[in-house]
Amino acid sequence: MTVRTRIAPSPTGDPHVGTAYIALFNYCFAKSQGGEFLLRIEDTDQQRSTPESEQAILDSLRWLGLDWDEGPDVGGACGPYRQSERSEIYREHCEKLIEQGLAFRCYRTAEELNEMRDARREAGLHSALKPSDLRLAEDEVERREAAGAPYVIRMVVPEDDGRCEIDDMLRGKVELDWSQVDAQILLKSDGLPTYHLANVVDDHLMGITHVLRGEEWLNSAPKHKLLYQYFGWEMPVLCHLPLLRNPDKSKLSKRKNPTSILYYKRMGFLPEALLNYLGRMGWSMPDESEKFSLATMLEHFDIQRVSLGGPIFDVDKLRWLNGLWMREDFSDDELIDRMQAWALNRDTLKNLLPHLKPRVEVFTDIAPLAAFFLSGMLPITRESFNGCALDEEELVSALQCCVWRLEAEQDWQRDTLFAAVKALADGLGIKLKDFMPPLFIAIAGTTSSISVVDSMALLGPEMTRARLRFAVDCLGGVGKKRLKKLEKRYEQALSAEG
Length: 498
Prior knowledge:
The chain is 48% helix and 8% strand. The protein is mainly alpha-helical. Belongs to the class-I aminoacyl-tRNA synthetase family. Glutamate--tRNA ligase type 1 subfamily.
């Protein structure tokens, strides 16, 4: 048997270090067994999936040195490798389940589902919604079908209180309660599959033998096991890897730690060092050495050396490791080549110069003006915002709402960014002349700079968002008490924008 593993990211935002972490372990497991590593794009969320995000995933993984044997860009015998191009395959499999009484069309409306969940909570019930809860009378199904009402296809799940046994490579036998397994949606009303159906069908048809994924999917394993049984297929071996954690042990999130691979690339980290650091996340070399290459990791790879304790992603430790790589593994000439490829290249300067030329008279004027383009987090403090017209609470509100708005922005162009910022300021009821100075300080460290939207376009989305989050933290951040209130205000601002 040829070992085949896969990584299946969703192209719905910046490529995440967690994706690279899972990809690394799938790659190492397959290659250490003489097997094959596949890349599949899970783009069933058509509203949020973009070609740009897909390309960023491919570029980021290749930048790290991870390559795949089959995928949307290299082809293979099991394609297509984008789920949006496999819709008919999923529908055919759903129809087979319906014919066998193992799935059903559910015409329940969102309002009905909310009422059912509310009633269960009030009754103190904590079990999941089952087919018997969701099925409508036959005549009502016929009425809604005749009216062309939208429906989803749900799977039939056990209604008893028994337990499902899952075999895991790291955890051994894990038992999960069937009472917590809901009648999962398999096919959405738009005809596209959920993760659960697509994951099972694609893994089987693509010959995946081992599924290494994050531990957050462990609770979904009973649904997947059930689907394999329904289809009469052999289930791949499961391995649920521990989640990456912030230093405070919370799940790694962009609110507390930069999570975009593009951010670390833009910051000037070496791909070898970042991959090395991800390899240390819950795994160790036999000699406990901290610095090792991908080739060395492959040579010594053993999945059983993964620790189930939540690995801490510490940017300071990553910086230390990156420094070791720079000093120990690169000659001066090699570092010069890397620095030129990173930012000191003709393309970067070509983008910068049109904005700098109106402000310079001699070459020595360029370095101070261009410094913030080539920097990471800027040395700003709470006092940096003293000259702004907004009070501190309003400053935090403006900057945090700007973070949220720019996290949703997919068209990263100067005019689009300006329109988004202006509409947000209007929605929040803040004059643009008062809204812009805090952005200047967060992005450039000063209000005496080129246009802030030009700066954001040049810096790119990951660095722009990271600097805005850093500015919010400099001002004390958004506590839990304020968060809900601010989220409501942000939603109102968006409504006004619409």
